[in-house]
């Protein structure tokens, strides 16, 4: 089968499906106008589309984010107590201040990443529930009732995840403390782990998870009852690019974030508090990237897909990027988050070590006795790189798995057109390859800029600092990111595609 004929048949059957859906709507309208018997009283409470179904990964993301924040506060508090007990390093409050500043920055980043991942996951779940939600609308439920139902699920996810993560984060910190004391790596300073400040990451993760679920399910408001009787498809690429308000907001956020990042780079020569300006600049600019993803990422994916050749599977994979822009953007954003996050931390650590060595060489007397503390800080931050990447990895695997499983009807249509199960798996593999390539290009670029500005804004004003320097490049981290991205994406897509292609074409076409 040629790629051209496959596209033609795919579009023709899609149009026939639309006409069938229109006839169903017409029959429904005729039935609506016929005389009816006594009115059936509707239940006072709207039925639910689902109850916590498919939220295991979201709970895990919230738990990891909470454990990240609580554990980080416990570990940095412990290190601050160790520094205060040291005769040399304890005389200066710089190290302790830097530790607390780092803890705040990492907690905000973890909460933000968890929120983006949760919002992306809920958007994917809602996309798979459109037909069920439309049926409930047809039975009398309102859009706001359905959205409130899903938002309550998000609140439950936040409560369970944040409390579970708090316990896990404290347990990890205690275990590390006791191990370090037993091996003689750290002295026993009698640190207390019961601190009111721990409520900050717990409540923060709970609220951001709930807010992210509320934002992620906003599509519920656009679902109409008629979509239960016709083909409920996502927006086309021309419709996505035509949303001027959303696209203008995305550009505005990117510009504002870029200005703040540039300001943080220069302000970092005066005070380490400039890292807070850079933090919010990064969050604002990346939010703009996420908002623009529906319009920008699909053309990039198609360009990457054309490099894979002109075989039917590769051509169809490249065309799907524009045919289903919202689905393509959701899948790619999940990987962009992970690549950007790990690259940011990797470049920040490499630049931090580079600038610290230069400062110690310039003023060795000032930094005498804190080499071991700085080494511990670098070690803790390096450990947190993997911890943060885990948040994004869970979200990526869950989003990709849900996206493939929700395509059972689409894959059944391709089987009916003559595609073999092997060709469909080849198409999904081609989609994964173009997704990895696009996400690596975007994520490595953003992460390099964010990490360099983060280290520069924090270390640019310390005594002996060399000023503005070239960013450190962690080649091992970058190589690991490339390899892990490829493996995670293929694994997350391959297993669900095997399950989906085992279903017969007739059963797949009958699926919702």
What does this structure look like?
- By secondary structure, the chain is mostly helical.
- Helix content is 76%, strand content 0%.
- The chain has helices at 3-33, 56-85, 94-128, 130-138, 143-182, 199-216, 237-241, 244-267, 274-291, 293-306, 312-323, 325-362, 371-405, 408-416, 421-459, 475-501, 505-510.
- Helix 12 packs antiparallel against helix 13.
- The longest helix is centred in the first third of the chain and has 40 residues, at 143-182.
- Residues 1-50 have low confidence and may be disordered.
Structural class: mainly alpha
- What is the string of helix and strand elements? HHHHHHHHHHHHHHHHH
Cα-based radius of gyration, to the nearest Å = 26 Å
Q: State the share of residues found in helices, binned by percent.
A: over 70%
* Strand segment tally: 0
Largest sheet, described in full? none
Strand content: under 5%
Low-confidence stretches: 1-50
What spatial form do the alpha-carbon principal axes imply?
globular
Figure out the total of helices. Answer: 17
Quick check: average pLDDT? 75
Give the terminus-to-terminus CA distance. 27 Å
How is this structure best summarized?
The chain is 76% helix and 0% strand. The protein is built from 17 helices and no strands.
